[in-house]
Each structure stands twice: as structure tokens, then as C-alpha cells.
């Protein structure tokens, strides 16, 4: 069993010692040229270098090379100015959002970053409208207006207090109009940005970042250069940490590797940071399937599934059972699936089916992807199959596909039940409900729910104080629980493994769990 308490003590102790000793002048964040760049390993490889095409793991790279109007300085949980000097709604209805840019901003090629560049960057997302791209984030945007060189006004077609969060996503990265066409994606393996780093070189297995000297934004870079290495699996990343070819590893560490690193960290020169995360895993039911479309079948599955067993047996307690679509730690989180179903019960599930006139064994095919959410996905679905079949109520067939063809399959409605994961676009409950409901949603599986889409979400988006929208999100989650169209399974935690020579790992992840490379540095002494 994973010893989370020891991992958490290690992280807390490390953070405290770092702060104390750095204050005494023994540790310094000044980088040393002869030590070379900090080398970071991850399985989160970008699929594109153009922000207009990306609603995926490409954001990890974008955050460090491009600049957005708003972003998240270390420790911030709400968007703060980055390329902007200031931003805010200028009306009481949350429909007009104005930003003033910092003076003298320049792209890495020397071109001026002005209000026209911001307008160009946002407008081209909708014009190009890449399938699976970020245009869906801009559903409330009516038009962008550039006023002079430094003012940008966003006119919304409806109240949307979450719009600042949207502007803080790397999808809204600011690009040079002379380098990024208005109606087409940019080609090639280079980037022109204005973020903390410039892209020195790029290949499918490595990105070399160097500090951008003219950057003007929130980031305090504590190193001069970072090399990001992209891996397919966890094991070679861990080997790289142990042989010294990697300084840091994050996103993609397998459960077994995390457990091993946790056990060994006191006896090696490695450290493991364990922090809360908002990644979730869930099942989606296709309403057009003759079996998955039956409410009683979905509720019976919800009654049988043992999330605790999945978290413990498959993920070694590196994830936590999840009982609502909104994860723990966000305003509006509930435990409705536990409140309604309680502990797993075959007897209750059997009664649900019998009351609906279903007495035969229910045949279902569960689909999962082989190369998106980690090597444990197969074991997770094998555990789900075992739980459902051991109840005597279901006959389960498992099928899988690589991600690219998997997406096409669920968008075409081919799967009765399929697994998905979700990393948030921004840390708000809205982003764990809105993408999954409505006729057109991120799942490609229509889920018309007018109470949520027509009333609760619009009302909540009109409220700038997010603490005041708890009741709306609670109601929305109860509706999702009643419908059982989506079945939350677990909530992930965030793990960063690093050499003992590296500091900053505990502060490096922003609220969307994207790593800010500038927070990493080598410990040096005077």
C-alpha cells in the first residue's frame, strides 16, 4: 500500500527547509552555466506547436514558451496578469472584459506584441476551428476589439464570469501575426512567442528551452535553460532519474514506480513530491446502445463498481475514489454517488434491475484507450470487468484502441460504454460539468440536459464570486448522478520526482497541473 503520509511529510519538510536555508543565504537559485540545463522527463508530449490547434498536452510546452494575457503565478489559484498589466470586467453583467497590455512587449523575433496581435491570436482560433481544437472554449465570445496599441476588449454574447479562466489557458497564447496565418496553422518545428523561454530546438523526443531575455511577465525564472525529454512510458523516466540523465520527472509516472520511489527516497538521492490534483477518470454511457441506454443498467453498474478496490489494487492508492464529476478541492465538490448508492452492493444492484423488469445477464462492451492515460488503464478495465461479472449480473467484453482511432470511435457513437480522463482547462467546477453536457460536448456523445445547460450553467456564469455558485453546481451534480450517464471513478494526485539537487518541485505545478519550468533550480552554495 502506498505510504502517502510519509510522502507528504517529505514534501512539507523539504519546502520548510528550503525556505529556511535560502533565507540564511546557504542555498541560491542562481543557475550555474557549467552544470547545463535542468533536464525534465514527461510522457506529456505536444501534438502541435500551434496554440490554435491544441486542446491537449501541448499546453505543457505552451505555458513556458508563449505568453497569455493572464496566467497563474506560483501560489495563485485565480488568474493574474501576465502579458496584461491589468484586466477586468467593465460592466455589472460580466459581458465586457477589458485588458491593458504591458508596455514595450516584444516577441522573440523582435516584432511588437500589441493589441492587434492579441486580437489576431484569439480570432484565428475560431476562424481555423480545428476539429478537437480549443474553439469550444470561446463559446461565450462575440468579438474582440483592439483599441490602440495596448487595450483589448472582449465582448461576450452572454454573461460569463469564467472568461478570465479561459484567457489564462495556454490555448489563448499570443502569437505573432506575421508568423501565424489568420486562416491556417503555422507549419514547422519552431515557435515565435514572448513567454519565459524561447524554443532553441525541437524534435519528437526533446525540446530545448532557453531563457528569453526580453520576457516581461509574472514568471521569476530560477534557471537559464531547461531540456524537456518526452517518453512513452514511466520505466525509462525512472531509469533516467536513477542514472542521473534526468533531473526531474512528472506526469506519466506509473503507480508501481511511484510506490518504489516513495520507499526508496530516504535511501537514495531522489525526492518525491506528492500533491493534490484535479485529474479525473470516468465512464461514459452511450444512450443509443440498447443496454447502456437503460437507466436501470447504468444505476446497477454504479451500485456494483468498487472505486476503492480500483484505487488500491490497480493504482496502489496513488489515486483516490471519486463520487462526483467535480473533484475534491474545487468549490462545489460533492459526494452524490456515494450518498445515493453507498458502498458497493450486488443485492441492491440486482433489485434495481429486477424493478426495471431485467432478469437476464446484461451483455456490455467496455472500451478503453491503450496509449493515453497510462499503462494501468488496461488493468483498471480488467478490474471493472471482474467486479461486474463477479456480481453475476453482467457479461463484459473489453475492447481497446490507440487514442487517435479511439476518439473517432466514440465520436461516431460506436462504444456502448467507454473510459475517459479529464485534465481541467481551468480550476473551476464549471470545467468539470459544461464540457460533458449538451448536444455538442467534448465526448462526442450528446447529453441533452436543459436544466444544466439552460439554467444552472448560465446562472452560475453570471456570478463573479465563485463561492456563490455552490448551490448551482450541487444541483447540477445531483442531476448527473440521477441520470447516471457519466460515472466518476477516481481522482488523481500529482507526483513530481526529482534529484536531491533540485529545488522548486513542490511549487512548479500551477492550478491546472501544468509545470512552470522557471520554478526549478539547482541548489548551490556560496
Tell me what the structure shows.
This is Peptide-binding protein. Belongs to the bacterial solute-binding protein 5 family. This protein has 526 residues and is an alpha+beta fold. The protein has 2 domains: 31-242 and 501-522, 3-Layer(aba) Sandwich (D-Maltodextrin-Binding Protein, domain 2), CATH 3.40.190; 277-493, Dipeptide-binding Protein, Domain 3 (Dipeptide-binding Protein, domain 3). It contains 14 helices and 19 strands. It has helices at residues 4-24, 59-65, 115-128, 163-167, 234-243, 255-264, 295-304, 307-314, 336-341, 346-355, 377-390, 403-411, 450-461, 470-483, and strands at 38-42, 70-71, 80-81, 84-89, 96-101, 141-147, 151-156, 197-203, 206-211, 225-230, 248-250, 270-285, 319-321, 362-369, 394-401, 417-422, 486-499, 502-503, 521-522. Strands 1, 8, 9, 10, 11, 12, 13, 14, 15, 16 and 17 form an 11-stranded mixed β-sheet that branches. Strands 4-5-7-6 form a 4-stranded antiparallel β-sheet, covered by helices on one side. A hairpin with a 2-residue loop joins strand 8 and strand 9. Helix 7 (295-304) runs antiparallel to helix 10 (346-355) and helix 13 runs antiparallel to helix 14. Mean pLDDT is 89; it is low at 1-33.
Write a brief caption for the model.
Keywords: Signal, Transport. This protein is an alpha+beta fold.
Amino acid at each position: 500500500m502506498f505510504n502517502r503520509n510519509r510522502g507528504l511529510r517529505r514534501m512539507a519538510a523539504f519546502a520548510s527547509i528550503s525556505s529556511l536555508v535560502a533565507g540564511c543565504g546557504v542555498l541560491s537559485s542562481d543557475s550555474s552555466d557549467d552544470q547545463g540545463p535542468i533536464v525534465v522527463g514527461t510522457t506529456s508530449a505536444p501534438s502541435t506547436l500551434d496554440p490554435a490547434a491544441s486542446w491537449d498536452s501541448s499546453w505543457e510546452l505552451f505555458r513556458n514558451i508563449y505568453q497569455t494575457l493572464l496566467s497563474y503565478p506560483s501560489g495563485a489559484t485565480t488568474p493574474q496578469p501576465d502579458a496584461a498589466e491589468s484586466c477586468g470586467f467593465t460592466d455589472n453583467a460580466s459581458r465586457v472584459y477589458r485588458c491593458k497590455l504591458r508596455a514595450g512587449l516584444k516577441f522573440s523575433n523582435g516584432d511588437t506584441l500589441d493589441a492587434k496581435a492579441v486580437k489576431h491570436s484569439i480570432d484565428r482560433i475560431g476562424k481555423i476551428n480545428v476539429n478537437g481544437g480549443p474553439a469550444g472554449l470561446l463559446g461565450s465570445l462575440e468579438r474582440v476589439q483592439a483599441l490602440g496599441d495596448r487595450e483589448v476588449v472582449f465582448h461576450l454574447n452572454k454573461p460569463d464570469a469564467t472568461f478570465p479562466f479561459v484567457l489564462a489557458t495556454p490555448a489563448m497564447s499570443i502569437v505573432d501575426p506575421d508568423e501565424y496565418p489568420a486562416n491556417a496553422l503555422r507549419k514547422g518545428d519552431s515557435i515565435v512567442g514572448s513567454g519565459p523561454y524561447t524554443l532553441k530546438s525541437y524534435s519528437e523526443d526533446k525540446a530545448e528551452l532557453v531563457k528569453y531575455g526580453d520576457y516581461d511577465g509574472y514568471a521569476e525564472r530560477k534557471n537559464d535553460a531547461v531540456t524537456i525529454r518526452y517518453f512513452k512510458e514511466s520505466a525509462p523516466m525512472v531509469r533516467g532519474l536513477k542514472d542521473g540523465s534526468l533531473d526531474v520527472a512528472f506526469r506519466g509516472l506509473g503507480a508501481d514506480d511511484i510506490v518504489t520511489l516513495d520507499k526508496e527516497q530516504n535511501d537514495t538521492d531522489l525526492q518525491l513530491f506528492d500533491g493534490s490534483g484535479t485529474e479525473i477518470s470516468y465512464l461514459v454511457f452511450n444512450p443509443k446502445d440498447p443496454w447502456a441506454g437503460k437507466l436501470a443498467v447504468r444505476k446497477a453498474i454504479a451500485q456494483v463498481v468498487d472505486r476503492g478496490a480500483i484505487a488500491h489494487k490497480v493504482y496502489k492508492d496513488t489515486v483516490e475514489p471519486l463520487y462526483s464529476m467535480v473533484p475534491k478541492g474545487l468549490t462545489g465538490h460533492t459526494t452524490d454517488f456515494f450518498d445515493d448508492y453507498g458502498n458497493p452492493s450486488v443485492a441492491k444492484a440486482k433489485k434495481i434491475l429486477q424493478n426495471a423488469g431485467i432478469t437476464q445477464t446484461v451483455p456490455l462492451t467496455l472500451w478503453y484507450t491503450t496509449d493515453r492515460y497510462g499503462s494501468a488503464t488496461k488493468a483498471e478495465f480488467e478490474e471493472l470487468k471482474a467486479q461486474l461479472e463477479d456480481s453475476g449480473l453482467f457479461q463484459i467484453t473489453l475492447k481497446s484502441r490507440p487514442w487517435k482511432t479511439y476518439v473517432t470511435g466514440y465520436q461516431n457513437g460506436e462504444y456502448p460504454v467507454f473510459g475517459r480522463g479529464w485534465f481541467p482547462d481551468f480550476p473551476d467546477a464549471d470545467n468539470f460539468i459544461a464540457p460533458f453536457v449538451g448536444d455538442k460536448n467534448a465526448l462526442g456523445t450528446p447529453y441533452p440536459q436543459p436544466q444544466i445547460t439552460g439554467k444552472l450553467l448560465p446562472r452560475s456564469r453570471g456570478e463573479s464570486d465563485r463561492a456563490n455558485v455552490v448551490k448551482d453546481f450541487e444541483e447540477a451534480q445531483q442531476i448527473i448522478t440521477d441520470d447516471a450517464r457519466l460515472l466518476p471513478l477516481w481522482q488523481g494526485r500529482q507526483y513530481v520526482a526529482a534529484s536531491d539537487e533540485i529545488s522548486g518541485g513542490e511549487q512548479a505545478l500551477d492550478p491546472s497541473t501544468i509545470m512552470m519550468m522557471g520554478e526549478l533550480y539547482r541548489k548551490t552554495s556560496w
